[in-house]
């Protein structure tokens, strides 16, 4: 009787893991298919793409779509601006947010509660687009590179995550350092900051992705200066021009040769633009993945 009852119980883990594996494979397929499909179109002949039937592998390989994207000389300078703003925003944002979070995590700081409330209120209330524009104008940041950096240096969401993570660290570390004569900045830089690497990698990824993908701030605050144009803004302009061509390749920017006109279409250009803008983040993410889940969980559930 015992052997009869034991077999069904032994089959339960097998059935669960099998169904779980099949479900996760389905999720992976649904997640990866749009990206693989877009990549296949970007490497496929534009005229052949109009026929359809392209799934995850190109029928007729070509690089003309990418050549049409990079034919403009402004793309390279715009890419430099995007990389510069992403790097500076990430470094300064992580450092300053962590420093503020360390301050607000100290129980002896009497204003920590009120300052935290002020930051939290910014997550629920926003003045709106027009007041923000006039604020940027009054600060003298219009048509300035620093308009990409200064307004978003400290995020309330990132601040809460880092502050919660710092509170989870042993208080004895700070107390022992103070007994040894260490100042607040030395404690922050030599003890707290290195211990926050997992959550900081998560925050760095948040900031980097947001800065890299941003284009609307360029449109609002720096569109009149071509030297401040970002890669995403140039891609948006190019994508807008392709959507207005009504599938006429001869109207595309950069389609000034017979070979390009025969191989480039708005759909293929949009696919190439999507891959170009997404590729840098895809290359960076694997190096931060091991910190991503661990840092976010530790910074969000411990109090």
From TrEMBL:
Q: Which domain of life is it from?
A: Bacteria
Under the heading Pfam families, the entry gives: BPD_transp_1
Query: Where is it mostly found?
Result: membrane
Membrane topology designation: Multi-pass membrane protein
Entry's transmembrane regions? 21-43, 75-102, 114-134, 146-166, 187-212, 267-288
Annotated ABC transmembrane type-1 domain ranges read: 79-288
> What's in the keyword line of the UniProt record?
Cell membrane, Membrane, Transmembrane, Transmembrane helix, Transport
Q: Which family does it belong to?
A: Belongs to the binding-protein-dependent transport system permease family.
PANTHER family named among the record's database cross-references = ABC TRANSPORTER PERMEASE PROTEIN MG189-RELATED-RELATED (PTHR43744), POLYGALACTURONAN_RHAMNOGALACTURONAN TRANSPORT SYSTEM PERMEASE PROTEIN YTCP (PTHR43744:SF9)
Q: What is this protein called?
A: Carbohydrate ABC transporter permease
Q: Which organism is it from?
A: Paenibacillus lacisoli
Lineage of producing organism: Bacteria, Bacillati, Bacillota, Bacilli, Bacillales
